[in-house]
Write a structure and sequence with these properties.
By secondary structure, the chain is an alpha/beta fold. It is 40% helix and 13% strand. It has 2 domains: 222 residues, Aspartate Aminotransferase, domain 2 (3-Layer(aba) Sandwich); 97 residues, Aspartate Aminotransferase, domain 1 (Alpha-Beta Complex). The longest helix is centred in the N-terminal third of the chain and has 24 residues.
Length: 445
C-alpha cells in the first residue's frame, strides 16, 4: 500500500506505473471515482445515527443484543457505515476487479488520509498495515540500527513487541533491554513510571519501545511525560543518535482523547479493528518525517520511484524509501477505513474517550466493592483507559470468562502468565451492562 503524505498533493497510484501499457484506460477509469462513500449492497438500511445519543450509536452495530460485549478490544464488530463500505467495495471488486482497483486506489487512499488526519490531528506520514503486530514487526525490523545499538522496552509489553525485538536482536546484534515501570499496577503513578523508564536509558539507547495501555494490567503510560523527559536526553545528541519513542498504541487508539501531537511520540502503531471499530485486518503506522528517515523497508514497497528505478526510468526515491508493504491487499476492508475514521470523527474523539472512561470508572467502582476481589487496574483515569483487569479469589480467569459468558457477559482472560480477568468498556456498552458485569463477577466471588 502506498504511503499517504499528511499534507500535500495526491500521489499517483503505484499500479499506474506497472500498467503503463494500459495507462490511458486506467487514468480514464480514475475519473469515474467520486468522493461519495459507497452505497450498501444487499443490506437493510441502518437506523439513522444520532452522534449525541449512545443508544443510537449502539444501534449501528449488529452485535448479539443478548450479550454485553466487553471484549470488543480484542476483535471488534464494525458499525453500519463500515459494513456497507466493505460490502460495496467487495461487490465491485468481484464484478470487475482490475478496473475498480485502478479507478479507486488513489482516490480511496486520499479519502482515508483526509479522515485520518482529522482524527489524529498531527503532521507526519501514515502507512497502512493489516494489524498492530504487522506494524510492530515492520517498524522494529526496519529501523536503522547497528550492532551495539540498544533498544529499551519494558517488562510489561506484549508478545508482539518482545518477539519483534528478539528477532531483530538475533538478526544483527542489537541489544534489547527491559525496564520494570511499576511493582503494583493498581498503585502505578506518573512519576514512578517516567522515572523508572528514563533511568534505564543509556548513551547507546536508540529506540524506546513502549505500549500506551498495557493489556496485562490496564495501566496507561504517561506517554506525553515520557516524551518530554526523553526530549531532554536527546537535546545533546546528534539526529542519528537520538532515542526514538515508539508506541504500541492499540489500546489507547480509539479509546483515549489523544493523538501523536498530544503524545509527542516519533512513531505510533495500532490496529484499527479494535477500539476504532474499523474493518477487520487493518492497522497503521504513523511517524514523523524525521523519524521515517531512520527506517529501511523490510518488504518491497510499491511506490512509483522505487518501481520506476527498477524498470530503468529513474534514480529511485529522492528521500527515505516508503515503508509500507507492496502487493495486493484486501482492498474492500482497507478502503472502508475511511468510514471508520469518519464514524469516530462524527462522534467526537473527546466524547468517545469520555464515554469509555465514564463506563470504566463505573465498572471499577463496582468491582472494588466486591469482598476479596483484587482490582489490578488503577482507579485514576490519568493512568488508565478502557481496560479493567481483576483477580477473583479462588476462580481461574478462563473459568470466570466461561461462567460470565453463560450469563450473557463477554469478557476475556489476559494472554499473560499469570493471567487475570479482563473487561473493556467501549461505545457499544451501556451503564446497565456495566451493572450486569459487576453482578456476574460478584456471583463468582
Amino acid at each position: 500500500m502506498k504511503g499517504m503524505a499528511w499534507i500535500g498533493d495526491m500521489a499517483v497510484s503505484r499500479r499506474l506505473v506497472l500498467g503503463a501499457a494500459a495507462g490511458t484506460a486506467a487514468l480514464g477509469a480514475l475519473a469515474a471515482c467520486d468522493d461519495d462513500p459507497p452505497k450498501p449492497t444487499g443490506q437493510a438500511t441502518p437506523p439513522p445515527l444520532d452522534p449525541q445519543d449512545w443508544a443510537s450509536v449502539r444501534a449501528q452495530f449488529v452485535l448479539d443484543p443478548a450479550v454485553a460485549h466487553f471484549d470488543a478490544f480484542v476483535f471488534a464488530s464494525p458499525p453500519a457505515t463500515v459494513r456497507a463500505a466493505i460490502d460495496a467495495h467487495r461487490a465491485q471488486l468481484d464484478r470487475d476487479p482490475l478496473t475498480y482497483l485502478h479507478a479507486n486506489e488513489v482516490a480511496r487512499d486520499a479519502q482515508i488520509t483526509q479522515e485520518a488526519a482529522k482524527y489524529l490531528g498531527a503532521h507526519g506520514e501514515l502507512y497502512l498495515t493489516d494489524s498492530t503486530t504487522m506494524g510492530l514487526g515492520l517498524l522494529y525490523g526496519g529501523l536503522a540500527l547497528a550492532s551495539g545499538d540498544e533498544v529499551l522496552t519494558t517488562e510489561h509489553d506484549f508478545y508482539s513487541t518482545h518477539e519483534s525485538l528478539r528477532l531483530r536482536a538475533a538478526r544483527d546484534g542489537v541489544t534489547v533491554r527491559r525496564a520494570r515501570l511499576y511493582r503494583d499496577p493498581a498503585a502505578a503513578g506518573v512519576d514512578e513510571m517516567v522515572g523508572a523508564l528514563l533511568a534505564a536509558v543509556t548513551p547507546k539507547t536508540r529506540v524506546v519501545a513502549v505500549t500506551w495501555v498495557h493489556s496485562s494490567t490496564g495501566v496507561r503510560l504517561p506517554v506525553r511525560e515520557i516524551a518530554t523527559a526523553l526530549a531532554e536526553v536527546n537535546r545533546s545528541r546528534s539526529p542519528q543518535e537520538k532515542a526514538l519513542l515508539c508506541v504500541d498504541g492499540v489500546h489507547g487508539f480509539g479509546a483515549v482523547d489523544a493523538g501523536p501531537a498530544e503524545l509527542g511520540c516519533d512513531f505510533l502503531v495500532s490496529g484499527c479493528h479494535k477500539w476504532l471499530f474499523g474493518p477487520r485486518g487493518t492497522g497503521m503506522v504513523w511517524g514523523t518525517e524525521a523519524a521515517w528517515q531512520r527506517f529501511r523497508p523490510v518488504i518491497p514497497p510499491f511506490d512509483n520511484a522505487s518501481i520506476g528505478a527498477w524498470m530503468g526510468f529513474g534514480p529511485g526515491p529522492a528521500g527515505a524509501v516508503p515503508p509500507s508493504p507492496g502487493g495486493y491487499h484486501a482492498f474492500e476492508h482497507r478502503w472502508a477505513l475511511r468510514e471508520a475514521f469518519a464514524f469516530h470523527n462524527a462522534l467526537g474523539r473527546d466524547r468517545v474517550a469520555a464515554r469509555t472512561a465514564q463506563l470504566a470508572a463505573t465498572l471499577k467502582a463496582g468491582l472494588a466493592q466486591i469482598p476479596g476481589l483484587k482490582l489490578i487496574t488503577p482507579r485514576s483515569p490519568a493512568v488508565s483507559a478502557g481496560l479493567v483487569c481483576c483477580d477473583i479469589p479462588g476462580t481461574q480467569p478462563a473459568a470466570a470468562v466461561q461462567a460470565m459468558r453463560a450469563q450473557g457477559i463477554a469478557a476475556s482472560a489476559t494472554p499473560y502468565n499469570p493471567s487475570c480477568l479482563r473487561l473493556g468498556t467501549s461505545i457499544v456498552n451501556s451503564v446497565e451492562e456495566v451493572d450486569r458485569a459487576v453482578a456476574a463477577v460478584r456471583a463468582l466471588s
